[in-house]
Amino acid sequence: YTLAEHLGAHGYQTAAFVSSSVLDKKFGFAQGFTLFDDDFSSSKSTVYQKFWDDLPEGLDRRADDTTRKVIDWLKQHRDPDQPFFLFIHYFDPHDPYVPPKEILSKLRPKGKRLTKLENQILKYDGEIRFTDREIGKLLGTLEQLGLKEETLVVVTSDHGEGLGQHDHMYHSINIYEEQVRVPLIFRYPAGIPAGSRFSEPVELVDLIPTILDLSNVTSKGFSSQGQNLAKALRGKATLDADRPVYLYRKKFKGHCRKDLSGKPIWLDGDKYGIRWENWKYIEGMAEKTQELFNLGEDPFELKNITGIFPEKGIELTSHIKDWKKEKFRHEADDSVISDEDLKRLEALGYIA
Fold first, then answer.
1. Contact status, residue 31 vs residue 2, Cβ threshold 8 Å
2. Rounded-to-integer distance, Cα 33 and Cα 154, Å
3. pTM for the complete prediction?
4. What is the pLDDT along the chain (352 residues), one digit of tens a residue?
């Protein structure tokens, strides 16, 4: 049972526009959406031909293509007599970094020769600016259509990107802060006051109960693991500063990658972590690693202090064990994924 199904059952028009084949409808992401647009042209894909010589379609599309389709839907296909739920997915701030040339030229410093890493970061910044521009177009369209005040807009991400921290680029192999801290922005002029900022920890699972509350849609019959943030957003409650946040890295079946210096790094098994108060603890059983950081004193996670505070590591690993027993019921079975889809996911960096 999905959020789109629940809102659809309560009279909402539902539509989704996604920008990467990792969200292809064949994986079940279209469940509950009346319209699910996942049409990718190979001529416009940013994931290069070497990955998909034998794949007929593209693997992604740029933000401006997605934005055009969303704006057309808002202007031509939205039913003005129904509330609507739109899921809009942008893929641009993701490897490979290929922002439009006109944006990149404005960001590139004049008279400075960039290192390879600096050039990658510049391109990543360009992708962020490009996506930000497209989100701005959507917000402008809502205003033009008179929908700004009564529309709840939520902007977030599924993961961050490593840009050389801990000697790695991109994502998926670590659960350090640069990978797991993501933006979360709510805009709802008619429902929540503007300008509030929160430093307390929250999780993406909090989105469903919060969206339902802010939309005045009952959550009856909808099971969610998250916490409702609506009262805090309305200025009528505070958030728990000591709330534990649990983290997970996917399982690798024995895989070698290289860090920025070219040193081979062996990846095996999965990793679990917990962020609680100022403490951050990460363990990889197959890789035989334990890492403990005090984020208050070491926000960039550079000094592993497991040996200095072994009792804290024992305490936090016991919380991880309890969480795993409660939340992890079974292992995912990847045998049902076709060879073609496995190749797509590999090209996008989601499996190794």
1. yes
2. 18
3. 0.86
4. 899 999 999 999 999 999 988 888 888 889 999 999 988 776 666 765 444 455 556 678 899 999 999 999 999 999 999 999 999 999 999 888 889 999 999 999 988 899 999 999 999 999 999 999 999 999 999 999 999 999 999 999 999 998 888 888 888 888 999 999 999 999 999 999 999 999 999 999 999 999 999 999 998 877 778 999 999 999 999 999 999 999 998 888 877 877 777 888 888 889 999 999 999 999 999 989 999 999 999 999 999 999 999 999 999 999 999 998 887 765 555 556 666 665 555 555 555 5
Distance from C-alpha of 268 to C-alpha of 195, rounded to nearest angstrom? 44
Written as one letter, the residue type at 168 is: H
End-to-end CA distance of the chain: 30
Phi-psi sector, 218: left (phi>0), alpha (psi -120 to 50), beta: beta
Q: Which pair of tokens denotes residue 127?
A: 């992708």
Place of tokens 């000094």: 303
Q: Are strands 162-163 and 279-284 parallel, antiparallel or unpaired?
A: unpaired
Q: Is residue 23 within 8 Å of 39, Cβ to Cβ?
A: no
Alpha-carbon distance of 233 to 207, in angstroms, equals: 12
Q: What is the 3-state secondary structure (H, E, C) of the chain?
A: CCHHHHHHHCCCEEEEECCEHHHCHHHCCCCCCCEEECCCCCCCCCCCHHHCCCCCCCCECCHHHHHHHHHHHHHHHCCCCCCEEEEECCCCCCCCCCCCHHHHHHHCCCCCCCCHHHHHHHHHHHHHHHHHHHHHHHHHHHHHCCCCCCCCEEEECCCCCEECHHHCEECCCCCCHHHHCCCEEEECCCCCCCCCCCCCCCCHHHHHHHHHHHCCCCCCCCCCCCCCCHHHHCCCCCCCCCCCEEEEEEEEEEEEEECCCCCEEEEEEEEEEEEECCEEEEEECCCCEEEEEECCCCCCCCCCCCCCCHHHHHHHHHHHHHHHHHHCCCCCCHHHCCHHHHHHHHHCCCCC
